[in-house]
Protein backbone atom coordinates (compact mmCIF):
# COMPACT_ATOMS: atom_id res chain seq x y z
CA UNK A 1 0.00 0.00 0.00
CA UNK A 2 2.78 2.44 0.86
CA UNK A 3 4.27 2.07 -2.56
CA UNK A 4 1.49 4.22 -3.99
CA UNK A 5 1.99 7.89 -4.67
CA UNK A 6 -0.76 10.31 -3.79
CA UNK A 7 -0.88 13.96 -4.73
CA UNK A 8 -3.19 16.17 -2.74
CA UNK A 9 -2.10 19.44 -4.25
CA UNK A 10 -5.10 21.69 -4.81
CA UNK A 11 -7.18 19.07 -2.97
CA UNK A 12 -6.89 16.73 -5.93
CA UNK A 13 -6.18 13.10 -5.33
CA UNK A 14 -4.65 10.89 -7.96
CA UNK A 15 -3.43 7.33 -7.85
CA UNK A 16 -0.37 6.94 -10.00
CA UNK A 17 -0.29 3.27 -10.83
CA UNK A 18 3.40 2.95 -10.09
CA UNK A 19 2.94 -0.75 -10.40
CA UNK A 20 0.22 -2.67 -12.08
CA UNK A 21 -0.74 -5.30 -9.48
CA UNK A 22 -3.26 -3.68 -7.17
CA UNK A 23 -5.10 -5.71 -4.54
CA UNK A 24 -8.70 -5.34 -3.30
CA UNK A 25 -7.76 -3.41 -0.16
CA UNK A 26 -6.07 -0.69 -2.20
CA UNK A 27 -8.88 -0.60 -4.75
CA UNK A 28 -11.48 -0.20 -2.00
CA UNK A 29 -9.44 2.58 -0.41
CA UNK A 30 -9.05 4.41 -3.73
CA UNK A 31 -12.70 4.08 -4.71
CA UNK A 32 -13.92 5.19 -1.26
CA UNK A 33 -11.68 8.25 -1.34
CA UNK A 34 -12.37 9.52 -4.84
CA UNK A 35 -8.89 8.67 -6.11
CA UNK A 36 -8.44 8.28 -9.87
CA UNK A 37 -7.86 4.62 -10.80
CA UNK A 38 -6.56 3.11 -14.03
CA UNK A 39 -7.68 -0.48 -14.59
CA UNK A 40 -5.08 -2.91 -15.89
CA UNK A 41 -7.15 -5.96 -16.88
CA UNK A 42 -10.63 -7.46 -17.03
CA UNK A 43 -10.38 -9.32 -13.69
CA UNK A 44 -9.49 -6.05 -11.99
CA UNK A 45 -12.46 -4.41 -13.72
CA UNK A 46 -14.75 -7.12 -12.30
CA UNK A 47 -13.38 -6.51 -8.78
CA UNK A 48 -13.92 -2.77 -9.16
CA UNK A 49 -17.44 -3.38 -10.44
CA UNK A 50 -18.21 -5.47 -7.33
CA UNK A 51 -16.72 -2.85 -4.99
CA UNK A 52 -18.67 0.00 -6.61
CA UNK A 53 -21.88 -2.08 -6.51
CA UNK A 54 -21.25 -2.64 -2.78
CA UNK A 55 -20.41 1.00 -2.09
CA UNK A 56 -23.42 2.13 -4.15
CA UNK A 57 -21.36 4.73 -6.05
CA UNK A 58 -17.87 6.17 -6.37
CA UNK A 59 -16.43 9.66 -6.61
CA UNK A 60 -13.37 8.26 -8.40
CA UNK A 61 -12.83 8.60 -12.09
CA UNK A 62 -12.00 5.15 -13.42
CA UNK A 63 -10.34 4.42 -16.76
CA UNK A 64 -9.09 1.36 -18.62
CA UNK A 65 -5.39 1.29 -19.46
CA UNK A 66 -5.52 0.66 -23.20
CA UNK A 67 -2.67 -0.87 -25.13
CA UNK A 68 -2.73 -0.32 -28.88
CA UNK A 69 0.02 -2.47 -30.40
CA UNK A 70 2.40 0.14 -31.79
CA UNK A 71 5.69 -1.77 -31.72
CA UNK A 72 8.89 -1.80 -29.72
CA UNK A 73 10.65 1.51 -29.15
CA UNK A 74 14.32 2.07 -28.40
CA UNK A 75 14.27 0.02 -25.15
CA UNK A 76 12.14 -3.14 -25.18
CA UNK A 77 12.07 -3.43 -21.37
CA UNK A 78 10.51 0.05 -21.18
CA UNK A 79 8.05 -0.35 -24.06
CA UNK A 80 4.52 -1.20 -23.02
CA UNK A 81 2.63 -1.29 -26.30
CA UNK A 82 3.96 -4.56 -27.64
CA UNK A 83 1.57 -7.52 -27.92
CA UNK A 84 3.41 -9.37 -25.13
CA UNK A 85 3.69 -6.40 -22.73
CA UNK A 86 2.29 -7.16 -19.27
CA UNK A 87 0.52 -3.81 -19.09
CA UNK A 88 -3.07 -2.89 -19.92
CA UNK A 89 -5.75 -4.25 -22.18
CA UNK A 90 -4.86 -4.78 -25.81
CA UNK A 91 -6.79 -2.48 -28.13
CA UNK A 92 -7.10 -4.06 -31.59
CA UNK A 93 -9.78 -4.15 -34.27
CA UNK A 94 -10.98 -7.46 -32.82
CA UNK A 95 -10.97 -6.45 -29.11
CA UNK A 96 -12.40 -2.96 -29.54
CA UNK A 97 -16.10 -3.91 -29.55
CA UNK A 98 -15.75 -5.90 -26.32
CA UNK A 99 -14.00 -3.00 -24.56
CA UNK A 100 -16.61 -0.52 -25.80
CA UNK A 101 -19.20 -2.88 -24.22
CA UNK A 102 -17.44 -2.53 -20.83
CA UNK A 103 -17.96 1.24 -21.04
CA UNK A 104 -21.57 0.97 -22.21
CA UNK A 105 -22.39 -1.27 -19.22
CA UNK A 106 -20.62 0.90 -16.62
CA UNK A 107 -21.55 4.60 -16.45
CA UNK A 108 -18.77 5.17 -13.88
CA UNK A 109 -16.08 4.26 -16.46
CA UNK A 110 -15.30 7.86 -17.28
CA UNK A 111 -11.64 7.83 -18.32
CA UNK A 112 -9.10 6.17 -20.62
CA UNK A 113 -5.41 5.74 -19.96
CA UNK A 114 -2.36 5.14 -22.11
CA UNK A 115 1.36 5.00 -21.35
CA UNK A 116 3.19 3.48 -24.31
CA UNK A 117 6.58 3.36 -22.61
CA UNK A 118 9.54 5.31 -21.31
CA UNK A 119 12.74 6.56 -22.93
CA UNK A 120 11.72 4.76 -26.09
CA UNK A 121 9.59 7.06 -28.18
CA UNK A 122 9.67 10.55 -29.64
CA UNK A 123 6.85 13.12 -29.61
CA UNK A 124 5.21 11.76 -32.74
CA UNK A 125 5.22 8.14 -31.44
CA UNK A 126 3.72 9.28 -28.12
CA UNK A 127 1.14 11.34 -29.99
CA UNK A 128 0.22 8.32 -32.08
CA UNK A 129 -0.63 6.43 -28.86
CA UNK A 130 -2.66 9.36 -27.50
CA UNK A 131 -4.59 9.58 -30.78
CA UNK A 132 -5.59 5.90 -30.49
CA UNK A 133 -7.20 6.39 -27.06
CA UNK A 134 -8.78 9.74 -27.93
CA UNK A 135 -10.38 8.20 -31.04
CA UNK A 136 -11.58 5.34 -28.86
CA UNK A 137 -13.09 7.73 -26.29
CA UNK A 138 -14.83 9.77 -29.00
CA UNK A 139 -16.33 6.57 -30.40
CA UNK A 140 -17.64 5.45 -26.99
CA UNK A 141 -19.13 8.88 -26.32
CA UNK A 142 -20.62 8.97 -29.84
CA UNK A 143 -22.33 5.60 -29.31
CA UNK A 144 -23.71 6.68 -25.94
CA UNK A 145 -24.76 10.10 -27.20
CA UNK A 146 -23.18 11.71 -24.10
CA UNK A 147 -19.73 12.63 -22.82
CA UNK A 148 -19.32 9.69 -20.42
CA UNK A 149 -15.55 9.60 -20.98
CA UNK A 150 -14.46 13.00 -19.74
CA UNK A 151 -10.87 12.31 -18.63
CA UNK A 152 -7.92 11.29 -20.81
CA UNK A 153 -4.78 10.13 -18.97
CA UNK A 154 -1.91 10.35 -21.48
CA UNK A 155 0.73 8.79 -19.15
CA UNK A 156 4.37 9.88 -19.25
CA UNK A 157 7.08 8.70 -21.58
CA UNK A 158 8.54 11.99 -22.82
CA UNK A 159 12.26 11.17 -23.05
CA UNK A 160 15.03 13.24 -21.49
CA UNK A 161 18.10 14.12 -23.53
CA UNK A 162 21.05 12.60 -21.70
CA UNK A 163 23.75 13.73 -24.12
CA UNK A 164 24.14 17.34 -22.97
CA UNK A 165 22.45 19.98 -20.80
CA UNK A 166 19.76 20.97 -23.29
CA UNK A 167 16.16 19.96 -22.64
CA UNK A 168 14.88 18.28 -25.77
CA UNK A 169 12.29 17.39 -26.71
CA UNK A 170 10.56 20.05 -24.62
CA UNK A 171 7.04 19.89 -23.21
CA UNK A 172 6.23 22.61 -25.74
CA UNK A 173 7.41 20.35 -28.61
CA UNK A 174 5.13 17.59 -27.33
CA UNK A 175 2.18 19.94 -26.85
CA UNK A 176 2.58 21.29 -30.39
CA UNK A 177 2.66 17.80 -31.90
CA UNK A 178 -0.42 16.84 -29.89
CA UNK A 179 -2.23 20.03 -30.92
CA UNK A 180 -1.56 19.30 -34.57
CA UNK A 181 -2.45 15.59 -34.55
CA UNK A 182 -5.04 15.31 -31.74
CA UNK A 183 -6.78 18.70 -31.40
CA UNK A 184 -9.75 16.94 -29.70
CA UNK A 185 -7.58 16.55 -26.57
CA UNK A 186 -7.47 20.31 -25.95
CA UNK A 187 -10.06 22.29 -23.93
CA UNK A 188 -10.90 24.60 -26.83
CA UNK A 189 -12.36 21.59 -28.65
CA UNK A 190 -14.77 20.87 -25.80
CA UNK A 191 -14.69 17.06 -26.08
CA UNK A 192 -13.21 16.25 -22.65
CA UNK A 193 -13.03 17.89 -19.23
CA UNK A 194 -9.64 16.81 -18.01
CA UNK A 195 -6.25 15.59 -19.22
CA UNK A 196 -3.96 13.80 -16.75
CA UNK A 197 -0.22 13.46 -17.39
CA UNK A 198 2.28 11.24 -15.56
CA UNK A 199 5.67 12.56 -16.67
CA UNK A 200 8.60 11.16 -14.71
CA UNK A 201 11.93 11.17 -16.53
CA UNK A 202 11.32 14.38 -18.50
CA UNK A 203 10.42 16.28 -15.30
CA UNK A 204 13.11 14.98 -13.01
CA UNK A 205 16.17 13.61 -14.80
CA UNK A 206 17.92 16.95 -15.25
CA UNK A 207 17.10 18.09 -11.71
CA UNK A 208 19.67 15.82 -10.08
CA UNK A 209 23.18 14.46 -10.37
CA UNK A 210 25.25 12.01 -8.39
CA UNK A 211 28.63 12.78 -6.94
CA UNK A 212 31.17 10.52 -5.27
CA UNK A 213 34.66 11.06 -3.98
CA UNK A 214 37.13 8.88 -5.89
CA UNK A 215 38.36 6.44 -3.28
CA UNK A 216 40.98 4.54 -5.32
CA UNK A 217 42.33 4.27 -8.85
CA UNK A 218 44.17 1.26 -10.21
CA UNK A 219 45.68 -0.01 -13.40
CA UNK A 220 43.84 -2.72 -15.39
CA UNK A 221 46.15 -2.62 -18.47
CA UNK A 222 48.46 -0.15 -20.18
CA UNK A 223 45.51 1.76 -21.62
CA UNK A 224 42.76 1.18 -19.07
CA UNK A 225 42.43 2.30 -15.45
CA UNK A 226 39.72 1.46 -12.94
CA UNK A 227 38.25 4.15 -10.71
CA UNK A 228 36.50 3.00 -7.52
CA UNK A 229 33.70 5.22 -6.21
CA UNK A 230 30.89 5.02 -3.64
CA UNK A 231 27.86 4.36 -5.83
CA UNK A 232 27.29 1.72 -8.44
CA UNK A 233 24.51 -0.76 -9.15
CA UNK A 234 22.84 0.27 -5.88
CA UNK A 235 21.98 3.69 -7.38
CA UNK A 236 22.28 2.95 -11.10
CA UNK A 237 20.54 -0.40 -11.42
CA UNK A 238 19.62 -0.19 -15.08
CA UNK A 239 22.97 1.23 -16.15
CA UNK A 240 24.94 -1.55 -14.47
CA UNK A 241 22.67 -4.53 -15.12
CA UNK A 242 22.03 -3.58 -18.77
CA UNK A 243 25.37 -2.09 -19.87
CA UNK A 244 24.52 -2.40 -23.56
CA UNK A 245 21.44 -0.19 -23.45
CA UNK A 246 22.67 3.22 -24.55
CA UNK A 247 19.62 5.01 -23.03
CA UNK A 248 20.73 3.92 -19.54
CA UNK A 249 24.17 5.49 -19.89
CA UNK A 250 24.96 8.81 -18.21
CA UNK A 251 27.58 11.51 -18.84
CA UNK A 252 30.57 11.61 -16.51
CA UNK A 253 32.74 14.55 -15.44
CA UNK A 254 35.62 14.71 -13.02
CA UNK A 255 36.46 17.54 -10.61
CA UNK A 256 39.56 18.06 -8.50
CA UNK A 257 39.47 17.94 -4.69
CA UNK A 258 39.21 21.77 -4.82
CA UNK A 259 36.15 21.58 -7.08
CA UNK A 260 37.78 22.52 -10.40
CA UNK A 261 36.57 20.76 -13.54
CA UNK A 262 39.49 18.65 -14.72
CA UNK A 263 40.74 19.04 -18.26
CA UNK A 264 43.78 17.95 -20.25
CA UNK A 265 44.95 14.75 -21.87
CA UNK A 266 42.44 11.95 -21.60
CA UNK A 267 42.79 8.24 -21.00
CA UNK A 268 40.43 5.29 -20.78
CA UNK A 269 38.66 4.46 -17.51
CA UNK A 270 36.09 2.08 -16.13
CA UNK A 271 34.12 3.64 -13.25
CA UNK A 272 33.21 0.94 -10.74
CA UNK A 273 31.03 0.98 -7.62
CA UNK A 274 31.29 -0.58 -4.14
CA UNK A 275 29.17 -3.74 -4.57
CA UNK A 276 30.47 -7.30 -4.46
CA UNK A 277 30.07 -8.26 -8.12
CA UNK A 278 32.06 -7.50 -11.24
CA UNK A 279 29.16 -5.99 -13.17
CA UNK A 280 29.05 -3.10 -10.71
CA UNK A 281 30.40 -0.65 -13.30
CA UNK A 282 28.55 2.62 -14.04
CA UNK A 283 30.66 3.58 -17.04
CA UNK A 284 32.99 1.55 -19.23
CA UNK A 285 35.75 2.72 -21.56
CA UNK A 286 35.11 6.39 -20.88
CA UNK A 287 37.80 8.90 -21.88
CA UNK A 288 38.54 11.27 -18.98
CA UNK A 289 41.33 13.61 -17.89
CA UNK A 290 43.59 12.06 -15.26
CA UNK A 291 41.46 10.82 -12.35
CA UNK A 292 43.13 10.75 -8.94
CA UNK A 293 42.37 9.62 -5.42
CA UNK A 294 40.32 12.38 -3.71
CA UNK A 295 38.80 13.78 -6.94
CA UNK A 296 35.03 14.05 -7.31
CA UNK A 297 33.21 12.15 -9.99
CA UNK A 298 29.85 13.41 -11.25
CA UNK A 299 27.23 11.39 -13.09
CA UNK A 300 24.75 13.74 -14.80
CA UNK A 301 20.97 13.55 -15.28
CA UNK A 302 20.32 11.22 -12.34
CA UNK A 303 17.20 12.98 -11.02
CA UNK A 304 15.03 10.10 -12.24
CA UNK A 305 15.32 6.33 -11.99
CA UNK A 306 18.30 6.39 -9.62
CA UNK A 307 17.31 6.88 -5.96
CA UNK A 308 13.84 5.56 -6.79
CA UNK A 309 15.37 2.25 -7.96
CA UNK A 310 17.78 2.03 -5.04
CA UNK A 311 18.92 -1.52 -4.25
CA UNK A 312 19.98 -2.68 -0.77
CA UNK A 313 22.37 -5.29 -2.19
CA UNK A 314 25.40 -5.59 0.16
CA UNK A 315 23.32 -3.81 2.88
CA UNK A 316 23.88 -0.48 1.18
CA UNK A 317 22.25 2.56 2.76
CA UNK A 318 20.58 5.09 0.47
CA UNK A 319 22.90 8.09 0.15
CA UNK A 320 22.47 11.58 1.53
CA UNK A 321 20.42 13.89 -0.69
CA UNK A 322 21.26 17.58 -1.02
CA UNK A 323 18.42 19.76 -2.22
CA UNK A 324 18.50 23.34 -3.39
CA UNK A 325 15.56 25.75 -3.56
CA UNK A 326 16.77 28.96 -5.18
CA UNK A 327 20.40 29.99 -4.89
CA UNK A 328 21.27 29.74 -1.20
CA UNK A 329 19.06 27.20 0.46
CA UNK A 330 21.03 23.97 0.61
CA UNK A 331 19.51 21.22 2.70
CA UNK A 332 20.89 17.80 3.32
CA UNK A 333 19.50 14.54 4.57
CA UNK A 334 20.12 10.84 4.45
CA UNK A 335 17.04 9.37 2.80
CA UNK A 336 15.77 6.32 4.65
CA UNK A 337 12.82 4.12 3.80
CA UNK A 338 10.95 5.94 6.56
CA UNK A 339 11.53 9.26 4.77
CA UNK A 340 10.28 7.77 1.53
CA UNK A 341 7.08 6.60 3.26
CA UNK A 342 6.69 10.03 4.76
CA UNK A 343 7.20 11.61 1.37
CA UNK A 344 4.76 9.39 -0.47
CA UNK A 345 2.07 9.07 2.15
CA UNK A 346 2.00 12.19 4.30
CA UNK A 347 3.29 15.09 2.29
CA UNK A 348 3.39 16.56 -1.16
CA UNK A 349 7.06 17.28 -1.00
CA UNK A 350 10.13 15.64 0.38
CA UNK A 351 10.81 17.38 3.69
CA UNK A 352 14.43 16.79 4.50
C1 LIG B 1 2.01 4.13 -15.92
C2 LIG B 1 3.23 4.96 -15.98
N1 LIG B 1 3.11 6.29 -16.09
C3 LIG B 1 4.18 7.11 -16.12
C4 LIG B 1 5.46 6.60 -16.03
C5 LIG B 1 6.63 7.57 -16.06
O1 LIG B 1 7.29 7.42 -17.27
P1 LIG B 1 8.41 8.46 -17.73
O2 LIG B 1 9.41 8.50 -16.64
O3 LIG B 1 8.98 7.86 -18.98
O4 LIG B 1 7.75 9.78 -17.99
C6 LIG B 1 5.66 5.22 -15.90
C7 LIG B 1 7.02 4.69 -15.81
O5 LIG B 1 7.31 3.62 -15.51
C8 LIG B 1 4.51 4.38 -15.88
O6 LIG B 1 4.63 3.06 -15.77
From TrEMBL:
Lineage: Eukaryota, Metazoa, Cnidaria, Anthozoa, Hexacorallia
UniProt keyword Cell wall biogenesis/degradation, yes or no: no
Ranges for domain Orn/DAP/Arg decarboxylase 2 N-terminal: 25-204
Keywords linked to the UniProt accession: Pyridoxal phosphate
PANTHER family listed in its UniProt record: DIAMINOPIMELATE DECARBOXYLASE, GROUP IV DECARBOXYLASE
SUPFAM superfamilies: Alanine racemase C-terminal domain-like (SSF50621), PLP-binding barrel (SSF51419)
InterPro entries: Ala_racemase/Decarboxylase_C (IPR009006), De-COase2_N (IPR022644), PLP-binding_barrel (IPR029066)
Stated name of the protein: Orn/DAP/Arg decarboxylase 2 N-terminal domain-containing protein
GO biological process, one term: lysine biosynthetic process via diaminopimelate
Cofactor: pyridoxal 5'-phosphate
Keyword Transcription regulation: no
GO MF entries: diaminopimelate decarboxylase activity
Amino acid sequence: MFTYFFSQRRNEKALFDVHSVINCTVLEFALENGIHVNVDNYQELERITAIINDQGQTKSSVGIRLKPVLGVGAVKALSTCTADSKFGVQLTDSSKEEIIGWYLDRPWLTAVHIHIGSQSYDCSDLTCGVKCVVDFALEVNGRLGKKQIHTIDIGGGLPANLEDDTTRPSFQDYAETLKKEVPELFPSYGAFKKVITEFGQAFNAKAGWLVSRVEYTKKASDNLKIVLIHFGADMMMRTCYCPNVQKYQRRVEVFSEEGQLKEGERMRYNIAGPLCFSGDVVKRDVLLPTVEEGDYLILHDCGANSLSLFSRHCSRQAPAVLGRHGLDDLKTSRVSLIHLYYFTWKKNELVL
